Amino acid sequence: MSDPLAPGAAEAAEPDGGGEGSHPLLSLALAGMMNDVQAHSGAVYLLSHDDKVLEMAVMAGLPRAFAAPWERVSVGSPIPVAEAVRERELIWVAGEEDMARRYPRIAVVLPYPFTLAALPITTAHTVYGAVFVTWPGSHPPEISATERGRLTAACDRLALRLARAAQQGRAVVPEADFLGPSAMTGTSGAIQAVHMLARMPDGMCSLDVNGLVTYANPAAGELLGIPVPGLLGNLLWSALPWLNDPVYEDRYRAAMISQHATSFVALRPPQDWLMFRFHPSRSGISVQITPARGTVREMPHDAPAEQPAGLVAISHILNLASALTEAVGVSDVIELVADEIMPAVGSRGLVMLAAEAGRLRVLGQRGYQNPQIVERFDGMPLAAQTPGAQTLATGVPSFFESREQLEHIYPARFATRDGMAAWAYLPLIASGRPVGTCVLSYSEPHHFSTDERAVLTSLGGLIAQALERARLYDTKHLLAHGLQAALLPHSLPTLPGLEVAARYLPGTQGMDIGGDFYDLMRTGDAVIGDVQGHNVTAAGLMGQVRTAVRAYTAAAQPPGKVMESTNRLLIDLDADLLASCVHLHLDLPAARGLLARAGHPQPLLRDPDGRVQILDLAGGPLLGVDPRAVYPTTAVPLPPGSVLVLYTDGLIEVPGVDMDDALVDLAALLASTPDQPLEALADTLIGHATRSRERSDDTALLLLRPER
């Protein structure tokens, strides 16, 4: 198969790196990729100068409006092109179910059967952007080796050309979208086809990939009630107000993306029902229009003159709604609005204001080079005569299409002198009470249509709900982890002849505090444990257990007796919670440790020569189960240079993996890690536990090494 960007053609295709007057480098590359693998649509993204944002530079095969929510996306976004850049590898989405499972934001907006491949455009040292291509849902669920090889090679060639353009100082800029092959005109075959269609009793239309009517036969004009010239060059739903319904536009989108035939029935007022059948291909859609048989449903004849917002606008709402479900803290909400909404609505600035104790507080901003412009509103009374305060006080959105409109209502000294030319002030109302104000600003005067105002107002409601949840989360998170920090030792004592390192990580799922703890005492005793549960009760009981262990240790009890005393105390407290624990007494002169275990994972010991063993310590049940439980004490050699690893189960707990297997993996990692300071070793072990998985449980780690 020929490659339009073969090395010989490449030199001629990019004299200006895509600038004015040059051949379209990106469009040619994308068209070549799609032809090589028979994909029906695709797009090229370029990485911004700060390496934080991917911006769509060209799209092919589908209207750009279909991808409007993803015109400009953060590299950290959970979508395939961003993941391809982060991972520097091909990302394959096998179909509708795979998309819904892995990328729900996209599946909500585009719930159609199609497969997708996303690849980074990268050299060995530099990432320039990413590409995605799609196939109809009939594509096999796996990408073939040939397709993978051709796409990878094409991206490698494009990366080299972009690198060469960068070295020569030639800017590569966005290009006109490639919409597929042109319709044939001026041939005798085409003329005969037109005559044939003119004789058909059914209405026949041809739509290009943007949905514009390029041909309609006379029967189509008669059935639709509009002269054929009124159809040409227009969208069907623009030329025919009674078709301006997102449900009908969705059928067109479904046909284009899935490349499967779709249909719908619509009422042409006052009483004519018409059947529309869409037959798609890579170059557009053929539409067959026939009278429908029978009355399908009743529709009121006095439908409102103003139609609902278009499907693309609704897709913005769906995309943001899906994205906001992933927001955890306030900063997440601000980042999502900046990454998802600002590009979609064309705004250049964002300010998020919150109501606190009768005043406005600036939670964050984007797009303002001078932060003092925004900070002057921090702490302003809610009664102040400013648009942000008044919007929040009244709960009514305000739209100012120019500075003149703004200063006509608000005195110049109160109007925002922020270098912008138009503003949308959206009240954030959640659960019937004001949460804050979202300010979207535009660098040029901007007309807000009725549809756009409705969409922005709806977005304000979604942002308000997410912001309220996020602020509650941040408050609870701060309190919870402040309590956790207070219950854990602020620092470990320095003991002669002993090197120590400790780590504690809260679980990444949810915001509750846990019952994991560790401690080291000047008596040479160390303890690590885990109280059942992830709440304030568990944390409080953890504090009591840690205090009890310290008290019994100070009374010179050996490890086994400390466990027995703590067990009885836990039962007396009647807390209905259990705890696991390992207690160690170090005898450095004798180069040994005395350990007692209460239902806790087995410690690991690395000998000075690097060999690792899992200490099979005899132990008793969990603390809080049996008041008569006995906890044996085991002596373990601890020669100078050996490393004793005490940990809680969060370090080895992996969903779907047996705990014994996970412990063996941890032991293998410990054995293969070169000798290094314990602080570095602790980072290695924690990094292993957190890599490629979420921690559903807290993790505590305590490392001890007698010095040589």
Q: How big is the Rg?
A: 33 Å
Using DSSP, what is the number of strands? 27
CATH topology (level 3) name of the largest domain = Phosphatase 2c, domain 1
The CATH class of the largest domain is Alpha Beta
* Overall form: elongated
- Can you list the strand order of the major beta sheet? 3-2-1-6-5-4
CATH homologous superfamily heading of the largest domain: PPM-type phosphatase domain
What is the arithmetic mean of pLDDT? 81
Quaternary structure annotation: single chain
How large is the share of residues in beta strands?
15-25%
Helix content: 25-40%
Tally of separate helices? 21
Task: Label the structural class.
Answer: alpha+beta
CATH architecture of the largest domain: 4-Layer Sandwich
Q: Can you characterise this structure?
A:
Strand 18 and strand 19 (525-531) form a beta hairpin. The longest helix is centred in the middle third of the chain and has 38 residues, at 450-487. The protein folds into four domains: 7-167, GAF domain (Beta-Lactamase); 188-293, PAS domain (Beta-Lactamase, 2-Layer Sandwich), CATH 3.30.450; 327-479, Beta-Lactamase (2-Layer Sandwich); 489-706, PPM-type phosphatase domain (Phosphatase 2c, domain 1). It is built from 21 helices and 27 strands. It is of the alpha+beta class. 35% of the residues lie in helices and 25% in strands. The chain is elongated, with a radius of gyration of 33 Å.
